[in-house]
GCN5-related N-acetyltransferase (Thiorhodococcus drewsii AZ1), 167 residues
Amino acid sequence: MTDRPFEIGLLGKEDRSDFCCGSEPLDRYLKAQASQDVRRRVSVCYVALDKATGRIAGYYTLSAADVPVSDLPLEVAGRLPHYPSVPAARIGRLAIDQRFQGCGLGGALLLNAAMRALRSEIAVFALVVDAKDNEAATFYRHHGFTAFVSNPLQLIAPITTFRKLLS
């Protein structure tokens, strides 16, 4: 967890022009697409604001998803009823501005997403992510995610994983 004072909340009218995480597609998404997706109810975007500067230090998006049980790792699927799919919350994007990388903010944003999924009034079995590369997949595996059978860059963590951490 981070020691820096951040405030995590819904994306508003914050200045996004100087956000730079080192991935041009993730930077461009925050600057040009995130508000449109929120308006269209395709996803919700949460930002971590550095309390000292008011800068966006990081962000993630969250949306509803379903996951075919046949794609799940055996250790996850083996405990489920015989349904074709299970409900999930998808972290579509997660990025940390380069000025704030290395202070634990990525893990804090993951826990924030899990907390929101746990508090949801609809059923959520797991968090799922589509890692953009092997480095991102390593980050998610470090935080308790396991790869789907069909795609090592698509990962899942049962929500109970986070319930234990948050209680």
DSSP finds five helices and seven strands in the chain.
